[in-house]
Task: inverse folding
């Protein structure tokens, strides 16, 4: 239910049937695009997109900007914590 | 006496010169029960498919047994190493090899990891009625090439044919003999706390290649089986690290199963470092998609060696010069306590790496 | 691996762990009185164990492993239904790998395969449909399990089958929904949970709005989390931040994959094919109303329950099983009398010992490193 893996769409095999090929670190598989296409996002627009793959379906497009934003926050949280710890340790000394 | 070659066939004259033609006698396209019946059909099969491929001086006159001078063994060592193995694989042909190659290298490796020089193999085949003769020819050609690569000779064998559905295409059982040099005593009981665990290269490829080749997962994968003879690697290792305690090849059940066997056999713990375990990027992708743990995927050309710490660096340098050892790495060490295999994860948290229960299956959760 | 490795960075993990430790101090949590966080989704349980996340964090935080593993909650009777169908002649029974080893009252699908049933493991329901196309003289039945994450894929597969006129294909549906489950957990008087890590991929479909009641009615925070270790740690950090700031909200940590609105196209496919089932039995938890789905009338032709006359019988669990308590986080696996003795991965009594994300299997296999009670169970098994 939960196992989804990020992969990149490298080919649109059949736009009418919504079949594409996804690449996950060099492993390839046909996936169904039904969940990520609509009037504003035709099958062709999925080429090179990064998607979340679950049981042979591309379930969601991965938002690069959000990914970077998340990583940025992670860095900040970690850095702040390390700084605070350093301050505490130096105070103790 | 030579006889004229049959059309398109090449004659391999037999030593002892009784003039029997070997090649070109078998015209059938598929194996039938008659080919196992002991009569002329079987004779044709054996001559045409097996003997003509495996022909070598040690085979002699095709008695019921191969006769091998003891000096072949005593010239190398003071103990006979002797192993047997059964080989079944589905599919028969996969990226990086086939059942024949697997059978030869698998047997050679069982001998090699004991420090033996592998010398001779036997090959008994059980063939399901209906198998294509061409399939057998391909398997035999692979075995011949593998034997040449590994420096061994296949000197005796047997063939049986069973009815449709009574075997899964072809089963191969081998036995192998070699000689162990005097003074060399590799053994699981030699393993000591403080020993490092060295693997010769990237793990999990064989298991992944087989799973992908079965086709039901509909994955396109560039991963090839790591099927290879380990003799050269073992020799290089032992030369650089003569006090190596133990080597085992990591076949079914993967690295994790091998290490658990050692841990169970010695009562010592083994502590692995997840970040040190060499894995191909595609193998990681394969495992991520299917939810598999690479530690449990089978290998056919990878060993785990238990080497005293002070010889570890030298061992690595030596392995990395040999084909199949370029990615050799230290992945962990033997510890005094625990009696189980534990892995420090990427974050320094710890998890147990237990023995596999049943077969590892892909998951969706 | 892009979008995976960056979220497994060990330095960042340590930084987060420090930050979480500070938050726990600020909340006055201790080992005897820890903050209790439940992750509902089995994939999260698996990730926590696989990466040894509990080892990074102080003992003042306790993980409760909830029933979000669709394999773990498979009732025995459902497995029996699978076997009944699989053993019929001319049937190819296709299933995800997870379900192969779950024990029913007469064995598992894997055992049935050994007895001659044509059971095939597939990665995708589309592969089951391919089997139907390739084997027109056989009936292909696909075991459709999973939460809302997987429902769109099975629904879309059925729609595809219908559009292609494929009739030798049906689904045995055991899809379950997360919201009634969450409510059942929250309503349980023995439950003491301080916050939730929400299921990332379920939310990818249903969106964050359905969880609103958890914050508004039950006053518990929930953070929708991704599945990499940094996702989990950040989500914990976000839950604890809410507690420190005395907020109570539904938040989304997994925004790179999960839009707050979920996936409307996917939901539409599900609504076209499925309807809510009045009753649905969960292993160990009993009947949870409205928590399952079944085919609606328009798709009856694809319903294996109708094709094979399956009646939803109920089969009781063995007496010593405490699957329900473990599923609800009320008991730890080693507190079940069968753990490590009558119930081990080799001879499982319940699905929690079979599923790769079941608590029992996870503890048994991954986590005895620091736990004496578990050590005892493992030693007893070895002797």
Result:
């Amino acid at each position: 239910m939960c196992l989804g893996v990020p992969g990149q769409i490298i080919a649109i095999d059949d736009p009418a049937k919504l079949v594409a090929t996804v690449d996950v670190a060099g492993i390839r598989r046909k996936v169904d695009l039904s969940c990520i296409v609509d009037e504003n996002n035709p099958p062709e627009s999925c080429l090179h997109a990064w998607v979340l793959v679950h049981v042979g379906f591309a379930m969601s497009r991965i938002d690069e900007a959000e990914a970077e934003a998340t990583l940025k926050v992670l860095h900040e949280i970690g850095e702040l914590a390390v700084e605070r710890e350093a301050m505490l340790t130096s105070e103790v000394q | 006496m030579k006889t004229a070659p049959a059309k398109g066939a090449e004659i391999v004259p037999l030593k002892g010169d009784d003039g029997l033609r070997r090649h070109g006698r078998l015209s059938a396209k598929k194996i039938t029960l008659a080919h196992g019946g002991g009569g002329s059909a079987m004779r044709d099969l054996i001559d045409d498919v097996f003997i003509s491929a495996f022909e070598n001086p040690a085979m002699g006159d095709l008695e019921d047994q191969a006769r091998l001078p003891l000096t072949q063994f005593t010239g190398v060592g003071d103990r006979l190493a002797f192993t047997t193995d059964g080989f079944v694989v589905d599919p028969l042909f996969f990226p990086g090899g086939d059942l024949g190659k697997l059978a030869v290298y698998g047997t050679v490796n069982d001998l090699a990891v004991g420090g033996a020089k592998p010398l001779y193999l036997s090959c008994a085949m059980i063939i399901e009625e209906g198998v294509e003769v061409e399939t057998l020819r391909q398997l035999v050609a692979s075995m011949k090439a593998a034997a040449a690569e590994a420096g061994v000779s296949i000197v005796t064998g047997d063939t049986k044919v069973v009815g449709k559905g009574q075997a899964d295409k072809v089963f191969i059982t081998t036995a192998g003999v070699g000689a162990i040099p005097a003074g060399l005593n590799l053994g699981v009981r030699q393993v000591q706390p403080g020993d490092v665990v060295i693997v010769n290269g990237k793990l999990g490829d064989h298991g992944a290649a087989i799973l992908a080749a079965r086709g039901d997962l509909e994955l396109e994968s560039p991963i090839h089986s790591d099927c290879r003879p380990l003799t050269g690697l073992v020799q290089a290792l032992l030369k650089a690290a003569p006090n190596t305690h133990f080597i085992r090849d990591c076949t079914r059940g993967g690295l994790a199963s091998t290490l658990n066997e050692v841990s169970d056999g010695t009562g010592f713990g083994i502590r692995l470092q997840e970040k040190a375990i060499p894995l191909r990027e595609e193998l990681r992708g394969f495992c991520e998609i299917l939810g598999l743990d690479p530690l449990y995927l089978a290998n056919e050309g990878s060993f785990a060696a238990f080497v005293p710490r002070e010889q570890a660096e030298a061992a690595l340098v030596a392995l990395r010069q040999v084909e199949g050892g370029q990615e050799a790495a230290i992945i962990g060490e033997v510890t005094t306590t625990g009696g189980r295999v534990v892995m420090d994860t990427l974050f320094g948290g710890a998890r147990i790496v237990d023995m596999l229960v049943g077969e590892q299956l892909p998951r969706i959760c | 691996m892009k979008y995976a490795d960056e979220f497994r960075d060990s330095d960042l993990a340590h930084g987060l762990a420090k930050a979480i430790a500070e938050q726990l101090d600020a909340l006055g949590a201790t080992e005897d009185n820890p903050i209790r966080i439940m992750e509902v989704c089995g994939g999260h349980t698996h990730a926590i164990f696989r990466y040894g996340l509990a080892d990074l964090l102080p003992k003042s935080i306790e993980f409760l492993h909830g029933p979000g593993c669709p394999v773990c909650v498979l009732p025995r009777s459902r497995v029996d239904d699978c076997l009944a169908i699989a053993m019929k002649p001319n049937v190819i029974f296709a299933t995800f790998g997870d379900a192969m080893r779950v024990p029913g009252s007469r064995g598992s699908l894997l055992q049935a395969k050994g007895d001659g049933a044509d059971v095939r493991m597939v990665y995708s329901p589309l592969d089951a449909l391919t089997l139907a196309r390739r084997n027109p003289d056989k009936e292909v039945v696909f075991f459709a399990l999973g939460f809302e994450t997987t429902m769109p894929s099975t629904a879309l597969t059925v729609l595809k089958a219908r559009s292609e006129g494929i009739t030798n294909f049906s689904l045995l549906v055991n899809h379950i929904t997360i919201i009634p489950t969450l409510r059942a957990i929250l309503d349980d008087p023995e439950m003491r949970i301080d916050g939730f890590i929400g299921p990332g991929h379920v939310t990818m479909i249903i969106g964050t709005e359905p969880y609103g009641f958890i914050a508004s009615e039950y006053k518990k925070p929930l953070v929708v989390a991704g599945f990499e270790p940094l996702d989990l740690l950040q989500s914990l950090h976000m839950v604890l931040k809410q507690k420190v700031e005395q907020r109570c909200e539904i938040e989304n940590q997994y925004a790179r994959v999960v839009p707050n609105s979920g996936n409307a196209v996917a939901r539409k496919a599900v609504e076209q094919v499925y309807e809510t089932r009045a009753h649905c039995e969960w292993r160990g938890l009993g009947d949870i109303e409205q928590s399952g789905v079944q085919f609606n009338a328009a798709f009856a032709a694809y319903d294996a329950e109708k094709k094979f006359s399956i009646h939803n019988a109920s089969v009781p669990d063995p007496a010593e099983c405490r699957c329900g308590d473990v599923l609800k986080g009320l008991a730890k696996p080693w507190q079940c009398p069968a753990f490590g003795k009558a119930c081990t991965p080799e001879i499982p009594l319940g699905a929690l010992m079979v599923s790769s994300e079941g608590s029992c299997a996870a503890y048994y296999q991954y986590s005895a490193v620091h736990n004496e009670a578990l050590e005892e169970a493992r030693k007893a098994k070895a002797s």
About this structure: Chain B touches chain A at residues 218-223, 281-282, 284-286, 288-289, 291, 363-365 (CB under 8 Å). The first helix of chain B runs from residue 40 to 54.
